[in-house]
Amino acid sequence: MTQVVTPSRASSRARRSSGRRFPLVRVIVLGAIAVAFISPIVFMIVTSLKTRADATSIPPSWIPDPFSLQAFTSILAPGSGTPVLQWFANSMIAAALNATLVVVTASLAAYPLARMQFRGKNVVFGVIVATLLIPPVILVIPNYLIVSELGWLNSLVAIIIPTAASAFGVFFMRQFFLGLPIELEEAALLDGANRFMIFTRVVLPLAKPALATLALLAFLGNWNDFLWPVYVLFSPEVQTLPAGLSTLQSANAVRYDLLMAGAVVASVPVLALFVFLQRFIIEGVSRSGVKG
């Protein structure tokens, strides 16, 4: 007996067969993207474990021959002329304090823009967002003159304070606050809480994902900043890690093994923070752009 295949059965079989093919395609595409992103990190680590001669060999190899910690001992040894540990500590202090200030100022500015009604609110928010269109390099000279007049040159204060007020942070936190249910704040008002109590005891605990995301972004921006520290920090003992690592390049040749070892040291805190905060980052980003 010949089996009659109805259109509905044929379409269901086609969906099942396509469903079996598409996961494989997605795995291949995502695997290729992962390899493209991970390969530079792997090559950085591999190069940092090579000798000076092996790091400059042509063609480059993916396996150190031999394995060597010479690059790390050269940049971390006391009296090496490259106080990497001091640069690391300076970067950690500056980035942590800057991220803290960004989170505080952004959340305090974003909450009134999200919940309170006052004259000129939209104009203020529009001006804040408009500043995002200004290239940061344009502000280098004005900021330098201000920092110089305040006597902050050649100190970590010069790289902590100028970027403590973040227009992106205000925009990011405002979008997150708009997505929170206003009924919780109204209930707190009925219970006799004032605006500051609502902000600190109701809103901020709910905004932990956004606060963690903004803190990481601010930390990363300050940690990786190269141009501004070069302008305002002069002494080796107050340099940050990105600016200090540039001195590892000699006049005649580039020590790729030393540069990659320094890059490994510089990437460890960022990778550790991302692994620790990735759950909050994903939730914060997914909930911060759903309402305008």
Structural account:
With 292 residues, this protein is an all-alpha fold. It has 2 domains: 65 residues, no CATH class; 206 residues, MetI-like (MetI-like fold, Orthogonal Bundle), CATH 1.10.3720.10. Helix content is 70%, strand content 0%. α4 crosses α11 and α9 packs antiparallel against α10. The longest helix has 42 residues. The radius of gyration is 26 Å and the shape is globular. It starts with 6 loop residues before the first helix and ends in a 5-residue tail after the last helix. The model has no long low-confidence stretch (mean pLDDT 82).
* CATH architecture annotation name of the largest domain: Orthogonal Bundle
Beta-strand content bin: under 5%
Estimated structural class: mainly alpha
What is the string of helix and strand elements? Answer: HHHHHHHHHHHHHH
The number of distinct structural domains comes to: 2
Largest sheet: none
Tally of strands: 0
By CATH reckoning, the class of the largest domain would read Mainly Alpha
Number of helices: 14
Q: In angstroms, what is the radius of gyration?
A: 26 Å
The CATH topology of the largest domain is given as MetI-like fold
List unreliable stretches of 5+ residues: none
Helix content: 55-70%
CATH superfamily of the largest domain: MetI-like
Question: What's the overall geometry?
Answer: globular
For the termini, the CA-CA separation is 63 Å
Mean pLDDT: 82
Which features does this protein show?
292 residues, mainly alpha, MetI-like fold, 14 helices, globular
